[in-house]
Amino acid sequence: MEQTLSTFINEFTAALAKSAPIFIKKLIFLAILWVTYRPVQGFIMKAFNKFLSLKKLDELLIHFLQSFLNILIIIFYALNVIQILGIEMTSILALLGSIGIGIGLALKGSLSDLAGGMQILASRYFTKGDYIITCSVEGTVQRITFLYTVLHTVDNKFVVVPNGKLSGEVIVNAGANAERRVDCVFSVSYDTSIDQVKELLTDIAKNHALILQDKDIFVRLSKHNSSSLDFTMRVWAKKEHYWDVFFDLQELVKKRFDQEGIEIPYNKLDVYCKTTGE
Q1: Phi and psi at residue 96, to the nearest 5°
Q2: d(CA 172, CA 92)
Q3: Residues 6+ apart with CB under 8 A from 189
Q4: What stretches in the chain show pLDDT beneath 50?
Q5: 145 phi and psi, to 5 degrees?
Q6: What pLDDT was estimated at residue 230?
Q7: Three-class SS state of 207
């Protein structure tokens, strides 16, 4: 019994002495990877950001490329860890292939969103700061990630739209140009002078500081409604002033109508009572 135990201890000691240098070497390599990950990542990202700044690319595309490069760095370090641990790459690749098929089937929608994000960035339908209308939502574009696009609505809501759905929808980019047209409709009663209303609305537009005076100011009678005359007013403003001009016009027109005694009609219902003798 003592001889068997002594033999086991000798063999264990010999094996430990043989494998200890290899084990220590692997620990050193792993420690080097651990220590250098953050500095190397920071250096590469800093150099990449400097390169992108020289290219003057779109801010959303820069954010997308930064995320992609960060993933590549993580994959590079992960492959080095696997190699240091002595795990066969063929086995890993076979396992990853099998897992990839399962994940691909399970995350079919996410892959569609990823492809949609690349399509959006490549085609440049819109950029950061643009006001877009799509997928039954509208808002200002804040950023595009791999899988989704973030919008901020006018009432400060945070809206996340999947890129796959966004790339397949009709997109109205209201902020693509520096100027936007503001359309308003104002109703007056039938006994109001058409020329008076046109002069009044034109005067309001010409005296508003945020309305672009070098653009056409359109004021015309557009519809004979059931109980009103409807006037369409179209003016131009800088895109950042769109809502200010829109709401200012609503208030200013109401005040001027009150001053001029112009009636804003409302739906009326005439009730006729028929009496019959008993």
Answers
A1: -65, -35
A2: 46
A3: 227, 228, 229, 262, 263, 264, 265
A4: none
A5: -105, -170
A6: 95
A7: coil
